[in-house]
Design brief:
With 126 residues, the protein is mostly beta strands. Helices cover 0% and strands 48% of the residues. The strands form two sheets. Strands 2, 4, 5, 6, 9, 10 and 11 form a seven-stranded mixed β-sheet that branches. Strands 1-3-8-7 form a four-stranded antiparallel β-sheet, with no helix packed on it. Strand 5 and strand 6 form a beta hairpin.
């Protein structure tokens, strides 16, 4: 059974920072590209960050580039998202996802992804 379990969500003031974790089990973690997505109320799901199987490559959309950092620890089967300079528009449920089939991590935003976590809520107050 593949499981992705997010943690670290909560309430933070604008300008603050928050770190999310996603613990994976039931898969060979180091063979999977990992990513973060988010969905705010009334909005479509949005790609946030991607990291390749080894952690040597990352990819971000302009909306978070320079503020968010994705990383992974394959010895712990865990992927992280460090969020700095948070804005109210970052408020959303954040989802962790995994896929070993991607030709490149730049395509992750277009992928349905093989496995998804249940999400963790991040709320950024003004």
């Amino acid at each position: 059974q593949v499981q992705l379990v997010e943690s670290g969500g909560g309430l933070v003031q604008a300008g603050g920072s928050l770190s999310l974790s996603c613990a994976a089990s039931g898969l060979t973690f180091s063979t999977y590209a990992m990513g973060w997505f988010r969905q705010a109320p009334g909005k479509e799901r949005e790609f946030v960050a991607a990291i390749n199987w080894s952690g040597r490559s990352t990819y971000y959309p302009d909306s978070v580039k320079g503020r968010f950092t994705i990383s992974r620890d394959n010895t712990k089967s865990t992927v992280y998202l460090r969020m700095n300079s948070l804005k109210p528009e970052d408020t959303a449920v954040y989802y962790c996802a995994a896929d070993e089939r991607l030709p490149s991590i730049a395509t992750m935003q277009y992928s349905s992804m093989q496995y998804w976590g249940k999400g963790t809520l991040v709320t950024v107050s003004p």
